[in-house]
């Protein structure tokens, strides 16, 4: 277990749009993940716009992320959810498919997709990651998002896409 969050990245300037896609399942915890992510984004991207879309469960997150990326891609998408392992393999199967789908969406769309759809054993682990401060994955998500936006902005400055790549990307 990592015992600390990554350090805060530098502040991102204006005109940045970030979309959070969060599941409602285990609402006490997912609401806290969302709130922590939004609070941290308020510090790191103070003039940015944050859109929030809630879906029923973790399994529904990738199709919503795909839909957003296809319609009007934001600078970054943050996926937040909480799966608590039950007595069957269902939780593991959902977690595994969500992980694969989110990475494929990021790589295919060339947009960062931050993955904090957590798989935990019990409510104690959930509390530490969603509500507690030290391991908070909502804050971690916001920091990863701000870092990736910064890195992509730098890449666009130092290695701009040529027009045929832009056409391909917009196709
Ligand atoms: N048990 C959890 C679920 N299960 C629901 C699925 O995500 C999905 O909504 C359902 O299978 C219908 O497609 N979802 C969570 O986010 N967390 C859980 O612990
Ligand atoms: C992860 C789930 O969807 C969960 O509700 C399933 O629980 P169980 O494995 O006990 O059926």
Automatic annotation (TrEMBL):
It is an enzyme of class 2 (transferase). One of its GO terms (molecular function) is 6,7-dimethyl-8-ribityllumazine synthase activity. One of its GO terms (cellular component) is cytosol. (2S)-2-hydroxy-3-oxobutyl phosphate binds at residues 87-88, 129. The keyword Transferase applies. Catalyzes the formation of 6,7-dimethyl-8-ribityllumazine by condensation of 5-amino-6-(D-ribitylamino)uracil with 3,4-dihydroxy-2-butanone 4-phosphate. This is the penultimate step in the biosynthesis of riboflavin. This is 6,7-dimethyl-8-ribityllumazine synthase.
